[in-house]
Every structure is written in C-alpha cells, then in structure tokens.
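Q: You know discrete backbone vocabularies at least as well as I do. I have my own habits and do not want them to colour yours. No explanation is needed for now; the record alone will do.
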Amino acid sequence: MARIDAFLKLGTQQGCSDVHLAVGVPPMLRVHGDLLPIKFRDLRASELESYIAEILTRSQSEILGRGNDLDFSYVSAEGGRFRVNVFRKETGIGATFRTIPATVPTLEKLALPPVVTKLCDFHQGMVLVTGSTGTGKSTTLAAMIDHLNQTRRLNIISLEDPIEFVHPSKNSQVIQRELGTHIPSFAEGVRAAMREDPDVILVGELRDAETISMAMTAAETGHLVLGTLHTTSAVKTIDRVIDALPVQEREQTKSFLAASLLAVVTQVLVKTADGHGRKAVCETLIMTKAIAKLIQSEQTHQIPTQLQMGRDLGMQLMDQALLAAINARQVDPDDAYGYASEKRPFQRFVTDTSMLPKLDITGSQPAAAASTATNKAVTG
C-alpha cells in the first residue's frame, strides 16, 4: 500500500472533499468548505516527493520531471477513487486529491432544480454547467449522464480530464475517454466522437476556441452536448463563448447560441444550515425567444431581467435561488451572504454581524461611504 493512502483514508473517513499536500505544512483536509490541518508534522520536500513517486507511472514521472503539472485519477488500496493534480511551486512539490464518491449521486439526491432533469429529455443542442473550481460541476454532469444512462437507450461518449465517476453501461452505452490517455485534446475527442455514432457527447471542459467550435458543430448536427465553463453567471457564460471565438465568427456564434443553446446552469456550493455539508445552489437560464433576441442584438446585460421573470419556466437568478434556500432553511445564511451579488436583501438573515458593512455614528451610511463624502467636502 502506498504511504499516501493513509492520508487519503483519513480524509475519506472525515468526509472531506479534498486532501491537500504541500511542502512546509502538514497535510490539510477541506471539510464542508473549510481547510483544516491534520495532526501531523510539516511535510519535507524529499518526503512528499517520495510519497507522490509511489503512485506515478513511468510516463507520469517523466512529465512531472519536465516541470509540467499532472492531472490523473488514482484508486487507493483502500478502494477510494480520487482526481489528482500534482504541481511544483517555489518550495517544492504539491498535490491535491479530490474525493470521488463510489457511486454516482442522483439528480434527486443533489436536490438540483427540477428543470435540470427536464434538460436530459432533449435530443439536440447544448447544455452548459458552469461555476468556479470546486463547485460540483463534474458531479452534476455525472448525475445527468447517470439519469440518461438509466432512462434512455443512447450512445453516450464522455471526454474527461481525468475520468472521475465510472459509469457502467445500463440502458445506454457509456464510453469514457480520458485526455492524454485516449485522446490528445478535447477538440480532437469531439471530432472523433462525431464519427462514433453518438447521441450524447460530454465535453469535460470547453477550454479553448477549437473545442468550443467543435462542440458547437456537434450540437448543430443532431447531438446533445453537455459541457462546462469556469464562469460564474449565465451572462458571463454567454459572453465568454462569444468572446472566445475569432471576431469574424462572432455573428455565427451568436446565431448558434440563439438557436442551439438549451440552458446554462451556474452553481455554487453553500454550507447547509446545520453546517454538516454543502448544497448546490443554481442560477438557471432556459433559452427563450426573448433571450435569443437579446443575444443576437448584443444586449446580454438585459438577460438577468428575463431570468428574474422566468420562474414559471424554471429560470432564476443566483440571488433568487440563495434567498429561497435561506427561507427554506437549507443553507447557512452567513455563507449564502458571501455568494450574493446584491447584498442588501440578505443582511437581515446574517448572524455574524462582523460580515456586514460598518456604519457611521449616525447609522445612515457605511463608514467607507461616509469617509468618501467627508473627503469630497474637504477637498471640494
């Protein structure tokens, strides 16, 4: 058994989402969003190098030796599966192990908006699941693939970096291909997938113009494409796709989004009200004629109004979703406050008053604003 498995086993037992190993500090666990050190000595460079070397293949060792980062999946002797990133920094080597549950969670268990399940009924178009790193995008997509796998007879091709959840074929055939192992790039993976009679193509990350272009082609030619972007709102997602492609393709990209983009689901993970877990809270955009017109006329800044008014279609802004979760006592209001765009409606729920803006002695305006007003009066 590799020595690093002892840390991974401890992390799994503590219910952590990530295990962090770095030179000069003890191993750390991310538990319910907080990073906590375990009772262990600070790791030395040679010590951590030897831990990591025990789990690398020869080719992986060569890549790391050339100074490149590594992304791969690892199954420990204890049976746990992890997504691993190994990197080098000023003080030496470092690694992050993301825990992958043994079973794929269902959409119902994740308590995602019901409209996410309905998106799995489409036969053609693009669905984007977005959010910053560590917000559960891969888990949501895995749950969607599992739902398709159980309820429809399809050929599902999943392109991942690396493979996380393993999907045994059920009613559908699920083919999982890994970047660097089975395909040289996501773009090449999509190009190859379109020659393999797919019904559904999952693209682990739309990280460059070529991949986005190939995914758009797949969605336009009769396939359901699921993909991710590291964007934090529906509007930013649409703008990112438009801006990623060359200027001469801008009109074509806007036309594609208006015609073939089905939905954008942007999520954050917020601590639960009892503090013993985290819940996915989602902003959802469902394509309508009104939103399509705003995209084509480059008025994406008006899309939030459509989301706010589109509750009957399953749409909602992130702030709306956060407030609903607070009112249902599903999430910690203090944590939700940190994710809100417009803070004022959330202030009455906050229990940690140190998070709130400081008021001046009259209580009429935040101290920073009062200071600015005073300075203007003096200098004016």
Q: What stands out?
A: The two ends are 72 Å apart (CA to CA). The longest strand covers residues 261-271.
